[in-house]
Amino acid sequence: MSETCLNCNNPVIENFCSNCGQKKYKRIDKKYIWDEIQYTFFHTNKGLLFSVKSILKNPGKTAKEFIDGNRVNHYKPILLVFVLSGIATLVSFKVLNLKEMMSDYFSQQHMNSNFMNDFMSFLSSYNSFLMVLLIPLFALTTKIAFRKWGHNYYEHIVMNAYILSFYTLVSIIVVYPIMFFFRHSTSAFFNISQFSILLIPIILVWFFREFYKDKPLKSIIIKVLAVLGLTILGYILFLVIGGLIGLGMTMLKGPEALEYIKPK
Q1: For the CA atoms of 241, 156, 201, 92, what is the dihedral angle to 10 degrees?
Q2: Quick one: which of 94, 128, 151, 199 could link to 155 by a disulfide (CB 3.0–4.6 Å)?
Q3: What's the CA gap between 122 and 125, in Å, rounded?
Q4: Distance between CA 211 and CA 53 in Å, rounded?
Q5: Residues 6+ apart with CB under 8 A from 92
Q6: Backbone dihedral region for residue 254 (phi beyond 0: left; psi -120 to 50: alpha; all else: beta)
Q7: Number of Cα atoms under 13 Å in the Cβ half of residue 84
Q8: pLDDT digits (tens, 9 = 90+) for 41-55
Q9: CB-based burial of residue 86 (10 Å sphere; 0-12 exposed, 13-18 middle, 19+ buried)?
Q10: Comparing C-alpha atoms, which of 221, 223, 230 is closest to residue 202?
């Protein structure tokens, strides 16, 4: 027996409206809430856990499936970055006390300042936003490096969402437990956090090797090196712009600005 879709007034014969895709009306009750929770989080053949499992097993293949159109079982990649980076923020700043550890390290290196403390606070508060903000920038580098291999910029955004998701999962599962074990040694704690960055080239080669299975490994390595080179150039540009802004603030505010960036 058909019903009328409450969104577009189209007749609904099955579980979803064929016109707008809205689910057939079902009263919100205890069973409805539980079904939604299961559908969103606990299904191992679709949704969040399915995507996490697939990414850990093979991030490149998972991204290719999504881009090629096999999407019904996968969690949306941009939303996945939000969720995982939120979890990473919770673990790093509530369990690892990353802000305090970094402050102690910079103090030992005579680099502690009000600016550094505010910078770390900003990172802890807006980590999810910053992670998503980086995706279009990284996508620009991979698009330039892989420009002749047939994918547009927006598809590279999806690729980089999966790359960042995989890196975040590795951090949560592998890097953070090691950092927690060495939390009583500030220098070791900091070195491990920096060493984890070296995983990025390995992750990129593995990802694109599985995404472009028909391409030779040598070509993929060369293009990954190009991505890293473009990223380093972007980072240098960021430092130059940041330095110029800092210089401008110092010239405008004088001693007050110097006191703000001066190590304690």
Answers
A1: 70
A2: 151
A3: 5
A4: 17
A5: 98, 124, 127, 176
A6: left
A7: 28
A8: 555 556 778 888 899
A9: middle
A10: 221
Q: Over the Cα atoms of the chain, what is R_g?
A: 23
Distance from C-alpha of 239 to C-alpha of 232, rounded to nearest angstrom: 10
Q: How far apart are CA 79 and CA 75, in angstroms?
A: 7
Nearest-angstrom CA–CA distance, 218 and 58: 20
CA distance linking residue 112 with residue 132, whole number of Å: 28
pTM above 0.85, yes or no: no
Residues written for the chain? 264
pLDDT at 155 over 80: yes
User: What percent of the chain lies above the pLDDT cut of 70?
Assistant: 71
